[in-house]
């Protein structure tokens, strides 16, 4: 934790509720008072990706956030005629272009703390614009993992 920012116990608990128990679709985190990463929004299991993007940007165009999302998609296995449902967890660092430099630096330097705490995340994504956080872009990055 080079930045000195702590990950709250609540963050760890909600992450496990998503990863193990599949109770929620996503969670949005924010750094509070430059001291601790806290839960800001928890998305219900039936929430859409559009709901997620809306909650991610709820703080405004200058606010950075972290997010964990349990992303589900259908995968066509080679040689098979049917598709199977895949679910992958991704951790996103959302730092909009309009965010203050200080906030960008704080969120970027604290990203490692979340990576360390959240075992089981398949993909780390950094996004500065909506195009980098859109469903198509994220799904493409997750599908690349299927080919390996």
From TrEMBL:
GO CC aspect terms: actin cytoskeleton
A GO molecular-function descriptor: actin binding
InterPro entries for this protein: ADF-H, ADF-H/Gelsolin-like_dom_sf, ADF/Cofilin
Keyword ATP-binding belongs to the record: no
UniProt keyword list: Actin-binding
Pfam families for the chain: Cofilin_ADF (PF00241)
GO biological process, one term: actin filament depolymerization
Family as reported in the entry's similarity comment: Belongs to the actin-binding proteins ADF family.
Annotated protein name in UniProt: Cofilin/actin-depolymerizing factor homolog
Source organism per UniProt: Drosophila hydei (Fruit fly)
